[in-house]
Amino acid sequence: MSLIALSGACEAGLLFALVALGVYLSFRLLDFPDLTVDGSFPLGASVAASTIMAGVPPIVATFLGFAAGASAGFVTAFLSVRLKIMNLLAGILTMVALFSINLRVMGKPNVSLYGTDTIFSWIDGIAALGVWANTVLLLCIVLAAKMFVDWFLATQMGLALRATGASPRMAEAHAVDNGRMVMFGMALANGLVGLAGALYAESQGVADVSMGLGTIVTGLAAVIIGETVVGAGSVARATLGCILGALIYRLVIALALDGGMIGIQAQDLNLVTALVVTVAVMISKTRLKKLPSIRRTRLPEPSKAEGAAS
Asked: Which pLDDT band holds residue 259 (cuts at 50, 70, 90)?
């Protein structure tokens, strides 16, 4: 693998590490099968690209991408919590609606950012890091996001959110508003996904309405691979697993596509993805059978959660 291909794989892995953190919050902590991700990812990209083209500073545009993703997650949770629509269906409805909304935001199927300033052109101007410039900036952003998630989930509100996902009945008995926790958690999860979409558009130089296809699969694969590699213990360990899982996933994909000698080509990407996820799930299940104490990552510290809920 060439140096450029390796840096590209690390860059993509770090971008999808943010998606994995969002999927970890919704899928693992809240036990909410959220397909909104396939729509909130391009939503963050389309909002960031459109606002940059309108003259908004890249940093503000990136934050707007986060806010747009958070809004999408809130809508999904509102459909589920307030309108009593099944979780899976609520996510599908939001995802379908976001396709049209993204077209409205961009005014066309895609928006090119080539030749415009992004947060990545900013780091190019202050440090000569060559092909690793984007990777270094993304690593700083991902580590900041991980530390924020770790900190938040240790606060009283974060512990209440974890209690809602682990045992809604117990949390409700301790005066926790489960509906509010689900809406906040889903907004935060999809905010991270929207942030990933905004950064993806700025790093690739384009936002496309179809760029979210398969995002949820990539996020789930990263979470599962991370659990397989580092196990599922504390929150800090689980979020580290999300980052490592996303990096490993993208490196495996890059190696597979780089291995032309065994006949794998670009059109086989989905097949390779399915095989990687299947192997990761098989390994994860084998480990869980050997270590039954790590079956769940939700609420690893029940005594603290109960204290927060009270």
From this structure: low
CA 29 to each of CA 32, 163, 239: distance values in angstroms, whole numbers, following the listed order:
8, 9, 11
How far is C-alpha 157 from the chain's CA centre? 21
Give me the phi and psi of 159, to 5 degrees please. Answer: -65, -35
Contact call for residues 38 and 214 (beta carbons, < 8 A): yes
Which residues, including other chains, have CB under 8 Å from residue 278's CB and lie 6 or more apart? Answer: none
Answer whether 148's CB lies under 8 Å from 245's CB.
no
The residues pairing with 110 across neighbouring beta strands, listed in sequence order, are 208
Q: How many helices (H) and strands (E) does the chain have?
A: 13, 2
Residues 6+ apart with CB under 8 A from 271: none
Note the pLDDT tens digit of each residue in 69-99: 999 999 999 999 999 999 999 999 999 999 9
CB contact at 8 A, 42 and 208 = yes
Direct distance between the N- and C-terminal alpha carbons of the chain, in angstroms, rounded to an integer? 54
Structure tokens at 161: 């959110």
Query: Both tokens of residue 187?
Result: 């907004």
List pLDDT tens digits, range 148-203: 999 999 999 999 999 998 888 888 888 889 999 999 999 999 999 999 999 999 99
